[in-house]
Amino acid sequence: MLSNTSLLIIEDQPEICDLIKLSFANRIPTIQLAHSLAEAAELIKETSFTLMIVDVYLPDGDPYPLILKMLQKKCRVLLMSGNFQINQRINDLPFPRIEKPFRLKNLIKKVEETVSNPLSDELIELAS
Questions:
Q1: For 78-105, what is the mean pLDDT?
Q2: Are 31 and 25 in contact (CB under 8 A)?
Q3: CA distance 50 to 73
């Protein structure tokens, strides 16, 4: 199911990025890491992704505009945070989410669900 997936992980904590990457290394052929929104913006210029796991609180800004841009490219989004209340605008979006700290088993399940579910009309409309 994940063999045709390309994944972008946007998380400022390198150890979390590495853990996620390692967890999917044998399942997802293309995995890129970005520790900031600036890094992510550069990566999406060069590569298209089918899934983005993004921390909702990043030190260099609000990921909301990047999320909308990725939706326009038909990229699925999985939100990740230790506290979703930090960014209310993103918290209100109808995206799948996983709370930190998470169990790897739960993360894998969420990723599989996110990739297998089509983007909703509501999300496509939001990106327009």
A1: 88
A2: yes
A3: 9
- Residue 83, phi-psi category: left (phi > 0), alpha (psi -120 to 50), beta (remainder): beta
Report the C-alpha gap between 77 and 7 in whole angstroms.
Answer: 10
pLDDT digits over 91-104, tens only? 788 899 999 999 99
Q: What pLDDT is stored for residue 20 in this prediction?
A: 97
pLDDT score at 127: 77
SS3 of the chain: CCCCCEEEEECCCHHHHHHHHHHHCCCCCEEEEECCHHHHHHHHHHCCCCEEEEECCECCECCHHHHHHHHHCCCEEEEEECCHHHCHHHHCCCCCEEECCCCHHHHHHHHHHHHHCCCCHHHHHHHC
Among 46, 77, 45, CA closest to 64: 77
